[in-house]
Amino acid sequence: MAEGKPKPPAFGFVVDATCGATGARAGRFCTPHGIVETPAFLPVGTQATVKALDGADLHDLAAPMVLANTYHLYLRPGTEVVAHFGGLHRFMGWPGPILTDSGGFQVFSLRQRRSRGTARGVSPLVRIDDDGVTFRSHLDGSTHRFTPERAIDAQVALGADVIMAFDECSPNDDDRAYAEASLARTHAWAIRCRRRWAAHEAARTNGSPQALFAIVQGGNFRDLREQSAHFIADLDLPGVAIGGESIGFSKSLTRQILEWVVPLLPADRPRYAMGIGAPDDFLAAVARGVDLFDSVLPTRLARNGSLLTADGRLPILNARYARDPAPPESGCGCPTCQRFSRAYLRHLFKSGELLAHRLATIHNLHFCISLMRRVRASIVGGEFPRFHDRVLDRFTYPLPRNSLPADPLPWPR
Ligand SMILES: [Zn+2]
User: Fold this and answer.
1) Which of 10, 152, 178, 367 is the most exposed, fewest CB within 10 Å of its CB?
2) Residues 283, 328: one domain?
3) DSSP letter string over 335-398?
4) Do 249 and 365 belong to one domain?
5) Per-residue pLDDT for 113 more than 90?
């Protein structure tokens, strides 16, 4: 494929307002499939579906953008199947903006897993070299290889608005030598991804343009994070992400890393903190100048019977709700709270009814999306610090972000 410059940008980002001494900002990220008002929470649709919902539900919820997972869709149904249908927007019946991750996070997560039938610690599912990663499918054990170029090709076939550079997610340890080698790989791969993306854009004859974001890594080392922020900013891409295993492995470290990194990023590009999904973490990241977030947390909590409310989590399975006629959250405007009681929702969960997952997911996504809308309004109105304190004073959130509940069945993973 010939190298070349991308055609004129179909993407743009404008900052509408910033708020006082904080780094909080309200912006608009323009994509070929719609404008994303920021700060924004992106629901995760791992398998080209936000579990239990379809595109019409997401439209009704005013979901600003949806994230889909390249690794999962590459393995099943295959990126060529999605391409055959003209890309993810048509395949999943969602006309709004879509972002795909590069597959890097899922591939590197396989490091923690071992192949079935082999001795523990003997046969990892992943081999990393400087050119790319060889991994075995968690579905059937078949062997595959991702390189930066193949990760971009897969995302071009999927056709999302925003695609991500293939990176190595910072390992959750303090091995300095490994962190340095890993970061060097991530940076070299980002350059290769940019080259491949630019070639695709220059050669594009149909379909919408795509924007490439690259990812700041560097683990918990300040100098590596700063070095990475400078490097990724200098790539001059349409957006920048901050990665890691939910960035810093703890709430306080995540906040610290954002304080190191964000001031070094270009002010005129969207900033995306990957894997942040707890409402108190949204607020902390917004205060530090982040624009975009994604996480499976709100939807997974919903399927476990945990409803997000302004007062914290409401465990709908608790016996005290068995005869409670109140909506899950009083004053909530979501379709679930408009029509159903806590008692009914609890009954659905206790009976293993599929509708339980759907109604709870609708509520939790509405909570996150409307919280972000109010965050944005508070920034525009110059009241973000007061809004931030008011929300946190009321909201108690006992679940640490790194303790995700297991995904309940009946859906296959
Ligand atoms: Zn509701």
Assistant:
1) 178
2) no
3) HHHHH--HHHHHHHHHTT-HHHHHHHHHHHHHHHHHHHHHHHHHHHTT-HHHHHHHHHHH-B--
4) no
5) no
Digit-coded pLDDT (tens) for 281-327 = 989 999 999 999 999 999 999 999 999 999 999 999 999 999 999 99
Centre of ligand 1 to C-alpha 137, Å, is 38
Give dist(CA 184, CA 170) in Å, integer: 11
- CA–centroid distance, 126 to ligand 1, in Å, is 41
Number of folded domains that form the chain: 2
Same domain? 171 vs 290: yes
For residue 374, how far is its CA from the centre of ligand 1 (angstroms)?
16
Tens digit of each residue's pLDDT (9 = 90 or more) over 328-387: 999 999 999 999 999 999 999 999 999 999 999 999 999 999 999 999 999 999 999 999
Q: Residues 232, 320: one domain? A: no
**Looking at the predicted structure, is the pLDDT value of residue 114 above 90?**
no
The alpha carbon of 366 and the centre of ligand 1 are apart by a number of angstroms equal to: 7
Residues 282 and 308 in one domain: no
Q: What is the pLDDT of residue 410?
A: 37
Q: Does one domain contain both 82 and 190? A: yes
Q: Does residue 122 sit in the same domain as residue 209? A: yes
Cβ neighbours, 10 Å, residue 145: 12
pLDDT at residue number 89: 98
Q: What residues are neighbours of ligand 1 (ion), with CB under 5 Å?
A: 332, 334, 336-337, 363
Question: How many other C-beta atoms lie within 10 A of the C-beta of residue 165?
Answer: 30
